[in-house]
Specification:
With 228 residues, the protein is α/β, with parallel strands linked by helices. It contains 8 helices and 8 strands, in the order βααααβαββββαββαα. The strands form 2 sheets. The chain has a 5-stranded mixed β-sheet. Strand 6, helix 6 and strand 7 form a beta-alpha-beta unit.
Length: 228
């Protein structure tokens, strides 16, 4: 039985694109993929960054990372509203009456430009040598832009990724050093409604769709079928 009401997030849409079968199993039947090893360090960095950015917001001062990269924006000043948008159980949301479904997302932060336009800002910490902008990051910022616009805000069709890349060249010395980078990317919210509609329609189907050929979970299922 499909859960009511339907609530999807950027990660839900990403799962739908990655494998419709895994998406259908999780969102309709409550059967999730086995979880990966928890990213406790990433979560800790995320909390610390929110605290750091909030300190500059409280002082109405630009964050040094924005200044160093010549980004002409300030941190979204409404801390109380931002706290709602950050909440995984609240977030910034849009209820589509025609679909009878909600799309929502929990942002890390939001930038406000001089013309009043907003842009989502997302923190990314990584142990990789190079910061990479994956498709799921693009979808995440596209969706946040769509949600901001549906909530009556003007956007500049931009998204900001603040990367904190572990600096492995300068030793540990009881502190984890990071290299900091900001990437401003174009966002395209126009494709989000169709993607949302397709994902909701799939959840209302009674029959499970096939796994994508490259889905490792579907491959595991196929290989173990003979032994179950």
């Amino acid at each position: 039985m499909i859960p009511r009401p339907i609530k999807l997030s950027p990660s839900s849409l990403d799962l739908y694109l990655e494998c419709p079968a895994c998406f259908w199993l999780e969102k309709r039947q409550g059967i999730r993929r086995p979880p990966p090893y928890p990213y406790a360090l990433n979560a800790a960095v995320d909390i610390l960054l929110k605290q750091e950015f909030d300190r500059y917001r409280a002082k109405d001062e630009p964050h040094p990372l924005l200044v160093a990269n010549n980004i002409p924006a300030r941190l979204f000043p409404n801390q109380k509203l931002l706290d709602v948008w950050r909440n995984n159980f609240e977030g910034i949301r849009f209820y589509d009456r025609q679909l009878d479904a909600t799309l929502f997302g929990a942002v890390d932060d939001v930038l406000e430009f001089k013309n009043g336009a907003l842009a989502p800002l997302d923190y990314k910490s990584t142990g990789s040598t190079v910061a990479r902008i994956y498709d799921r990051f693009q979808l995440q910022l596209d969706t946040y832009t769509f949600l901001l616009e549906k909530n009556g805000y003007t956007t500049n069709k931009k998204g900001c990724l603040a990367f904190y890349v572990v600096d492995k060249a300068n030793g540990f010395e009881d502190r984890l050093p990071f290299k900091k980078e900001i990437h401003m990317i174009d966002t395209d919210p126009a494709h989000v409604p169709k993607l949302f509609e397709e994902a909701v329609a799939l959840l209302r189907q009674e029959t499970m769709p096939p796994h994508r050929p490259d889905c490792k979970f579907g491959e595991w299922q196929r290989l173990t079928k003979a032994f179950i």
